Amino acid sequence: MRHQPLLNTRFFFSTTPMPCPYLPNRMERRVVTELIGRDPVTLHEQLSFAGFRRSHGIAYAPACTDCDACKAVRVITREFKPTRSQRRVWNRNCHLGVEICNPVATHEQYRVFSAYQRDRHGDGDMAKMDISDYQGLIENTPVETVQVEFRDGDEKLVAVCLTDRMANALSAVYSFFDPEYEGASLGSHMILWLIKEAKRAGLEYVYLGFWVSNCTKMAYKARFQPMEVRTAEGWEMLKPDAIHDGVAGDLTARPTIPMEVPNNLPFDDLLKPRA
After folding, report:
1. Could you list the residue range(s) of the whole structural domain that residue 158 is in?
2. How confident is the model over 57-84, as pLDDT tens digits?
3. Could you say which of 17, 88, 156, 242 would form a disulfide bridge with 249 (CB–CB 3.0 to 4.6 Å)?
4. How many domains does the chain have?
5. Is 60 among the domain residues?
6. 208-243 tens-digit pLDDT
7. CB of 191 within 8 A of CB of 164?
8. Residues 57 and 36 sit within 8 Å (Cβ to Cβ)
9. Per residue in 138-173, pLDDT tens?
10. What is the CATH number of the domain that holds 180?
């Protein structure tokens, strides 16, 4: 009897419970799968639409047994209009030079990354990452990925945004900045830059990862409106009037219409790395 290989079989695994990094006295559990096979790019698109996020060569989503607070979010770029506060952030940082790079880790980036982790997440696992770990975070990608570097007038690297390019969206995988520039709101500036680039290229969304309504660390994400949140019913609009300092109440009852992921959308020079 001959056995056929399971070429199209997709395996998902559940992690062991660990302390939640976002909410106190909670345990976190994730479902993960490897982005491997004949077409990891399309798989990444499909899983992103389903609310997964990429890290290294895997995609993951929350799978907590007694909590559903952690939700994937995305900004609708064509309808986005910056608030007065966001315009101030943009004007404050518009002098920064921007360079699009291939996903190659450098010691310069790692110094900024390490300073950011010590300042923001000193008790987290990422604060313990060495240069080899950082290299894996940046370079281990099976999809189209670039790094967006932001530099001041002295060519000093002040912020980096690791970004995935998708057929109808950009996805902010991970971003960090020099803590000496804390008052410049560089995290928000990088999101504004991604939205502007996505809108310029006619892309529908900018994915911002996961958002927890009662987590102050994630409050800033809800300020980029209009925003959709992935729920059990699909992608739903987040009510602007339900947000207070980034904490949201109810979602709208109107689910968004699922969008087919195009397979042959031509890219222009959007986020094309320099040679």
Report:
1. 69-255
2. 999 999 998 899 999 999 999 999 999 9
3. 242
4. 1
5. no
6. 999 998 888 888 899 999 999 999 899 999 976 555
7. no
8. yes
9. 999 999 999 999 999 899 999 999 999 999 999 999
10. 3.40.630.30
